[in-house]
Write a structure and sequence with these properties.
This protein is α/β, with parallel strands linked by helices. The protein contains 6 helices and 5 strands, in the order βαβαβαβαβαα. It has one domain: 3-Layer(aba) Sandwich (Ribose 5-phosphate Isomerase B, Chain: A). A 5-stranded parallel sheet has the order 2-1-3-5-4, with helices on both faces. The protein is globular.
Length: about 140
């Protein structure tokens, strides 16, 4: 599995923890930055993650900022991206199972490192259920 990951300064420490855990689990991770806690603009790191996912270079993406909102809005501007802002494991599982989310957005200032790692595990471990959900997911991009 290949994961694209990116964060702003507020998400930097959590991004590093996620990268370390995924690497230890044998997951290939492409890090689009940021590479420090110096103040930066989250769109600069969200757009490359979304591009990697839409191009098929990555199977899924993870983006992180302080609230999770700004970077989530950024990646959701990309066609065929279905990013979900999740702050617990149940939301992460449902995002994959019911919405076929392909990018996980995390709110670094509102979850602990352990919670973040658990959310990532839940997101990556869940699979899209299809069925009645597929019809709904197919309607998300209508009009784009």
């Amino acid at each position: 599995m290949k994961i694209a990951i990116g964060s702003d300064h507020a998400g930097y420490e959590l991004k590093e923890a996620v990268k370390k855990k995924l690497g230890a689990d044998g997951v290939e991770v492409k890090d689009f930055g940021t590479h420090s806690s110096d103040s930066v603009d989250y769109p600069d790191f969200g757009h490359p993650v979304a591009d990697d996912v839409t191009s098929g270079m990555a199977d899924l993406g993870i983006v992180i900022c302080g609230s999770g909102n700004g970077i989530n809005m950024t990646v959701n501007k990309h066609r065929n991206i279905r990013a979900a802002l999740c702050w617990n494991t149940e939301l992460a599982e449902l995002a994959r199972q019911h919405n076929n989310a392909n990018i996980l957005s995390l709110p670094a200032r509102f979850i602990s490192e352990k919670e973040g790692l658990d959310i990532v595990k839940a997101f990556l471990g869940a699979e899209f259920e299809g069925g009645r959900h597929e019809r709904r997911v197919n309607k998300i991009s209508e009009g784009c």
